[in-house]
Amino acid sequence: MSKSSVLNTYNFVSTFNLPRTIDSEHYQLIIRQQPKQARLCNSKERGYREDAQNFLQSPYYFMCANLVYPGDDNENITNSSKYLAGTVVSSLHKLKDIDNTDGGFFVFGDISVRIEGRYRLRFSLFEIIREEVIHVQSILSDVFTVYSPKTFPGMSESTFLSRSFSDQGVRIRIRKEHRIQMKRPQSSRHSDIADCEDDIVNNDNNE
């Protein structure tokens, strides 16, 4: 989870109290990338029935992310703006999957948690039908830990799926693999400059 650029002020009602007028058996939600760990952000930080193709491009579907405690999966954490920051609502994206097939994805590339602890994310799918917003289905993520800045073990390298979505125009912060730079003996200023130029060329070819 990256730092958020916007702090959300949304409050969502519990999805368990919403009427269901849609047969959810026709829908299947799959979490393709599970949250693993997160560094908390504070208020001072910038957190950063029809043809299937019609569903992939429908503007009437959107998904909301809410935080829940691992032992209380049936209820969202109240006062969501106190806990969550960033983009907590996603529209439907038609994107190429890693096997080059078309898919419908909801992307949460900029979502942060502001309080330490262990949590799960509930992703709830909604459909806009005329003047109503209908809850379709929900799915829970795995449990993940939010660390303080001092204990946070560090960000992982971006996955191939994230890189693929970024290449297709989705705004996702891509993290490159950490490179360990070896110290060289300073024989001459000229040789140091030549080595740096070689490194730049090699890095450009590898990325």
From TrEMBL:
UniProt region (Disordered), positions on chain: 181-207
Velvet domain: residues covered: 19-175
Cited InterPro entries: Velvet, Velvet_dom, Velvet_dom_sf
Gene3D superfamilies to which the protein is assigned, alphabetical: Velvet domain
Localization annotation: Nucleus
Protein name: 7638_t:CDS:1
Principal location: nucleus
Naturally occurring in which organism (per UniProt): Diversispora eburnea
Keyword Transcription annotated: yes
PROSITE patterns in UniProt: VELVET
Keywords: Nucleus, Transcription, Transcription regulation
Biased amino acid composition, Acidic residues: 194-207
Superkingdom field: Eukaryota
CC per GO annotation: nucleus
